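ZP: hey, is the zinc ion complex queued? I don't see it on the tracker
AM: it wasn't, my bad. submitting now with these inputs:
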Amino acid sequence: MPELPEVEAALEFLRTRARGRTIARVRLLHPALERRLSPTQLQALAGARIARVERRGKHQLLHLDDGRVLHAHFRMNGDWAFAGTSAPLPRFARAAIDLDDDTSLIFVDSRALGTIDLHPAGVALDLGLGPDAADPEWTAEQLADELTRRRGPIKPALLDQRLVAGLGNIYAAESLWRARISPFAPSNALSRERVQSLREAIDAVLRRATGSRYTDDDTVTLDVYDREGLPCRRCRTPIERAVQAGRSTYFCPACQPRETAAKQGTAKKTEKTVKKAAKNSAKNSAKNSAKKPARTSAKKTAKRTARKSAKKSAKKTAKSARRSRRT
Ligand SMILES: [Zn+2]
């Protein structure tokens, strides 16, 4: 799903391809968009010049020189493509903005959930957004003040665009992992220090992702998102997945314990479980072994076996997770 860094990349694309150009015609290629833009509105777009483009959170605003605003949102997986106006349209093309230089900006969206709207001139555009996650002026103090008013867990709060604009499921999970905060931590229970590390983590995560075009494994290495069963990059504990407010959330149970006080308990428990598993499989392998190896070597073998099978199942899980990705 396109989040702030990906939308920023799309904006960069619009700045180079569309800014300063005049719209020759807008073609709608999907009924969902036809419901949002009337034929009259469409006709009136011809001849308007795209004066500037702006990103607000995950929203893209194409400011026309007469004050109207063409407003695009990718939602789940929209994107822009660019082609000559007479070239065949790509699969899943939902709209085409033909420009005066015989090129077209094409809104491509396989799920057809993305939106394009036209806002009239002279009306202040209120998108109901909080501070932009990439805004250097947005401080940890502001975030902390907002969080004291919220009782729910922190992860869904970070997805609320009124709290902070631009974060989505991927970068919210990444930021929490980096700040070592549990996605289940109550928002109003986070200390100022923890909110400070969260603010810094959001900054670092977004910086690292900026310039990427869609989150795929080749451009950005994710630390926790979509890594269920794989070892945590910090402590090697398998990453867990949970469903929270209807969305998948990924976290390290050791680095991101549910409560700070429970941190040691969780770590100990994990260690215990691992030891127990190793012991059990040591017993089994000793039983199955004809030679009856010495206790230490049985333990070693068991550990190796446990590691191997954990790796195998982790790989399997990751594979199936990728298949059913984007919940
Ligand atoms: Zn960890």
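AM: back. The two ends are 10 Å apart (CA to CA).
ZP: great, adding it to the tracker
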